[in-house]
Specification:
- This protein has one helix and 29 strands.
- Strands 9, 10, 11, 13, 15, 16 and 17 form a seven-stranded antiparallel beta sheet that branches.
- The protein is 2% helix and 44% strand.
Length: 403
């Protein structure tokens, strides 16, 4: 007797935890080919022939596992695989399903005539006895979940743990084994350690980061079920770079533009109610560490900035287009950045202004009169629109802070 099991890793060995295969027909014959009996494997994958009446001592038998009763798309795994024992190997010929001669002494039993089942067909892709191909390909490797297939690679802190992940796909026509193992960098763990054609495995390793530009080479060697072996290398890149010391600092420059014209702190500003105005400021990092996550907010409107990070000394431009409110009003533009230490740095710019209603449309006669009296009413022009920067009332204020 014995067990029929699913050899999920295709290594020809009945490993702990591998599932069993029920409803497989097994036939027992004597030395002359006479059928002694048949059995179907149970829900536990086991079969057993009992109460035999031997004609000699020892008596000889053969077992034949019927491949027609195997699950669809499967065949027998390799017979007597390297590293196996009679207790955990697969005993039938992968092509015929028949075992070697079994000699059984009267009064004894042998329940180790097992059969392993794998995906594939005899002589075809995935099946024993094949002339298949062993081939692998790699996905984009990552360092701390960032792409690391080309230099300089992600920046990491020297001495800190670095998590490397590599995906390996079986692009051949037969299963392979041998993924993972000990490398000069540590233990590479691959799940699963074997793969059927088209199946993907994920390999991971954690190392301590080194300083400077690093190029790591991983050599993968895998074995096909028919003994083929291939090797393929993959390079992974990262750069060990110490975190910058000090703090970043957001600073709004002296050149501020409103509707395309320069304005200064304290300047009186008059705008036309109901129109839109555009405020543009230059922002720089005047601190001693880089700034990231640069963004801007405003009490009215949605500002944008030309950069999302600033190295020390680097500049960007932030722009806000807002609707002009009626009467006396103000708005505040806030620029926010974060340094490597996690400090949030802000700078604000406040515009206080008054607005006048737009002049009504006039006839051609009135327009001429308006033109002649422009020196006494600077809020009107030939087209009836207000001067957006007339020096009447209002002021600009700029402040900087950090938390």
């Amino acid at each position: 007797g014995g067990t029929v099991w699913s050899d999920t890793n295709s290594n020809g060995i009945m490993d702990s935890g591998e599932p069993v295969v029920p409803n497989v027909k097994v036939t027992l014959t004597d030395d002359f080919g006479k059928t002694i009996g048949t059995q179907m494997t149970g829900t536990d994958g086991k079969y057993r022939f009992s109460n035999l009446d031997p004609t000699s001592d020892p008596n000889t038998y053969y077992l034949t596992f019927d491949s027609a009763t195997l699950p669809t798309g499967t065949t027998f795994t390799a017979e007597h695989a390297p590293g196996s024992t009679h207790v955990n190997d697969s005993t039938p010929d992968p092509q015929t399903g028949k075992t070697q001669r079994i000699a059984l002494v009267r009064g004894t039993q042998d329940l180790t005539w097992n059969a392993g089942v794998i995906a594939g067909t005899p002589g075809g892709p995935g099946g024993p006895g094949q002339t298949g191909t062993v081939s692998i390909s790699f996905g984009t490797p990552t360092v701390n979940d960032q792409p690391a297939d080309a230099g300089p690679g992600p920046s990491v802190v020297p001495g800190q743990p670095v998590n490397i992940k590599i995906t390996v796909t079986n692009t051949g026509t037969e299963a392979f084994t041998g993924l993972g193992g000990v490398t000069p960098l540590g233990t590479l763990t691959c799940t699963p350690g074997t793969a059927q054609p088209g199946q993907q495995a994920t390999c991971t390793i954690t190392i301590n980061a080194q300083s400077g530009a690093q190029k790591l080479t991983f050599n993968f060697s895998v074995h096909g079920v028919d003994g083929q072996q291939i090797s393929k290398a993959l390079c992974v890149y990262y750069t060990g770079q110490a975190q910058a010391q000090g703090n970043g600092q957001v600073t709004i420059g002296n050149q501020v533009m409103l509707n395309g014209q320069p304005v200064t702190n304290g300047q009186q500003i008059n705008l036309t109610a109901g129109s839109t105005a555009t405020l543009t400021v230059n922002v720089s990092n005047t601190g001693s560490a880089a700034l990231t996550h640069l963004s801007a907010t405003a009490t009215t409107g949605t500002p944008t900035c030309t950069a999302s990070s600033l190295a020390v000394g680097q500049q960007a431009t932030c722009t806000l287009t807002f609707p002009v409110a009626s009467g006396a009003s103000h708005l505040t533009l806030t620029i926010i950045g974060q340094d490597a230490a996690g400090n949030s740095m802000t700078a604000t710019y406040t515009v206080t202004y008054t607005s006048t209603a737009p002049a009504a449309a006039a006839s051609s006669t009135t327009a001429s009169t308006s033109t002649n009296s422009a020196t006494t009413n600077s809020t009107t022009s030939g087209n009836g629109a207000g001067n957006l920067l007339a020096p009447l009332t209002g002021l600009l204020q700029s402040t900087t802070s950090h938390t």
